[in-house]
Amino acid sequence: MRREQWIGGLLFLGLIALVALGQWRIGVRRRSTPVAVLHRPRAVMGTTCSMAVVVFERDRAKAEEALQAAEIVLRRIEARMSSWLDDSEISALNTARPGVHVPLEAETLEVLRAASEAAARTGGTFDVTCGPLVRLWQQAGLEGVLPRQAALDRARAASNWSLFDLDAAGATRHSQDACVDLGGITKGYAIDRAVEVLQAAAFSGGLVDVGGDLRCFGRDMTGKPWPVDLQNPFGRGRVARLEVSDTAVTTSGNYARYAEIDGRRYSHIIDPRTGRPAEAAASVTILAPEAMTADIWATALGVLGLDGFALLPEGVEALIVIGDEHNYRVYCTPGCRGLLVEPLPRQLSVWDSAGP
Ligand code: AMP
Ligand code: MG
User: Fold this and answer.
1) How far is the CA of 278 from the centre of ligand 1 (A)?
2) Domains 34-83+181-218 and 97-177 share a fold
3) Closest ligand 1 atom, CA of 125?
4) I need a surface site. Which of 23, 51, 256, 280 has the fewest CB within 10 A?
5) Which CATH architecture has domain 34-83+181-218?
6) Which CATH number fits domain 97-177: 1.10.10.10, 3.40.50.2300, 3.40.640.10, 1.10.3980.10?
7) pTM listed for this prediction
8) How far apart are CA 257 and CA 184, in angstroms?
9) Which residues of 301-328 are buried (b: 16+ CB within 10 A; e: fewer)?
């Protein structure tokens, strides 16, 4: 073999070795850098859903399996508790003959019990027995006509926990007009159960978001707390950004769902004390360890506004936007202020339960 051929052959082998080494390096980097595996199931609870877990590339299959399992949990809870589905357990309760006991699965009963306890803790402002009022105002929105006083009085009389009994195996309704609506609590409960599925698989971080309500655990794929943008209730863009880990963040506002009658917007949250749509806030965001707690308090503070700060349990933080698009202020608890990142909203006031 000629000398040039030898050198050519050595150079070629060297090149292969370099490429192989390079690929090996890339391979190592890929396997040792965490990635977020995303899952976006369609039409969960009538809204958008995205879930993520942080894993090393080699654990992708395990991540996908856990995310599928979490989706199944979300869908199971929706199937049991939605009042939009005729064959749900809640629809069975809402259409049962008065006085007839309706057997319920343990998790449906758990949510009903939590809702009943929440009514007491929120001064009656979180009340799932407001179903008749919710329906009345939904219908008013569809027709574009305000409800008549007689219809309002009837719906108010039918919206009361005294018209339901819960026991160890199910529930009984005592009036033909009474119905429960778990729309203000199911999402939170479902998010908690889905997060449990992901946490059981011991991922270093994860997040479940259903329609903008979410709960995250651990860190994101960059090793930092999860960034969460709070939508401006009056238009595009965000009103604030939070960085959180091991926290649920839920928002109730009248920008996402509302009824319009005579050019005026009416919130989908009912003030059980008046039977009318709540007007206290443009949006309420709650931070709590569990999504169900956050969901409950977001709805309750939608009714109570700033007065609700005094009722918040330990470990539950709030941010409220009050006013209109031309003139609004953002109020938050000191604990929430600590989680806001720059740039802060210009119109920010920090309130503790005693006031500013
Ligand atoms: P959220 O978006 O979590 O505030 O939930 C709002 C939904 O909860 C409404 O669409 C109704 O289905 C239901 N709801 C309305 N008002 C109340 C209330 N005062 N207490 C409990 N649930 C309510
Ligand atoms: Mg809620």
Assistant:
1) 10
2) no
3) 19
4) 23
5) Roll (3.10)
6) 1.10.3980.10
7) 0.91
8) 12
9) bbbbbbebbebbeeebbbbbbbeeeeeb
Assess whether the C-beta atom of 270 lies below 6 angstroms from ligand 1. Answer: yes
pLDDT in tens, the chain (356 residues): 455 555 555 444 444 444 444 333 434 445 578 999 999 999 999 999 999 999 999 999 999 999 999 999 999 999 999 999 999 999 999 999 999 999 999 999 999 999 999 999 999 999 999 999 999 999 999 999 999 999 999 999 999 999 999 999 999 999 999 999 999 999 999 999 999 999 999 999 999 999 999 999 999 999 999 999 999 998 888 999 999 999 999 999 866 667 888 888 899 999 999 999 999 999 999 999 999 999 999 999 999 999 999 999 999 999 999 998 889 999 999 999 999 998 898 899 998 766 66
- Kindly report the backbone phi and psi dihedral angles of residue 122, in degrees, each rounded to the nearest multiple of 5, phi listed first: -100, 20
Strand, coil or helix: what is 17?
helix
Report which ligand 1 atom has the smallest distance to the Cα of 256.
Answer: 2
CA terminus-to-terminus distance, the chain: 90
- What ligand 1 atom has the least distance to the C-alpha of 115? 21
CA of 184 to the centre of ligand 2 (A): 4
**What are the backbone angles phi and psi of residue 154, rounded to the nearest 5°?**
-65, -45
Domain 225-356 CATH (choose: 3.10.520.10, 3.50.50.60, 2.60.40.1180, 3.30.300.20): 3.10.520.10
